[in-house]
Amino acid sequence: MAGDNDTPTARKVHDDFEENMREVVKHFVDTEGEHERWDIDQVESKLRLESASRGPPARATFRLYITPKMANFHNSIHGGCTATVIDILSSMLVIGASQPGMFQVGGVSRNLNVTYLRPMRVGSEVRVICELVQMGKRLALVKTEIRSVDNDELCALGDHQKANTDSKPFGKI
Questions:
Q1: Contact present, 159 and 111 (Cβ < 8 Å)
Q2: In angstroms, rounded to a whole number, what is the distance separating the alpha carbons of residues 113 and 79?
Q3: DSSP per-residue string spanning 79-116
């Protein structure tokens, strides 16, 4: 779509943001085995960044497969795992959109609300669309949709509020 975002400067800003998001994802994947933590198996799920845009609003789209390790007894993704996917991927967007002193380390979750609409079966591929609704000095809000790649059906919605934990700059302004 042509328009305000089709100038050479706008394309460069877009390319820089997408490259920054790719670096955030790469760092997350490269450090996976270094620490014991609750996260997504990036190798088995084939987690990847599909696209990213600075916006406004800033937006990142990821794709991944639902794996057996994510499953409940009904052979679909466990609700807690869905919340983890939303938490981790929306936090990546916050880090990608960060500025000095604002969410450079991702912050901490203040509130995470998930609405489950349809099951996501093991082996199915999903698209996770994260959109930064608001980012201030102290708080950020990301809305997330999880959709089936096969039929674009909406499977889950998430609202993730983050609190900034970056160190305060020295001195007064």
A1: yes
A2: 11
A3: HHHHHHHHHHHHHHHHHHT-BTTBSTT--EEEEEEEEE
Q: Note whether 132 and 97 are within 8 A (CB).
A: yes
Question: Architecture of domain 4-163 in CATH?
Answer: Roll (3.10)
Tens of pLDDT, residues 46-64: 999 999 999 899 999 999 9
Residue 65 amino acid letter: Y
Count of other CB atoms within 10 angstroms of residue 42: 16
Dihedral angle of Cα 40, 43, 44, 46, to the nearest 10 degrees: 90
pTM of the model: 0.81
CB 69, CB 46: distance < 8 Å = no
Report how far residue 38's alpha carbon sits from residue 61's, in angstroms, rounded to the nearest whole number. 21
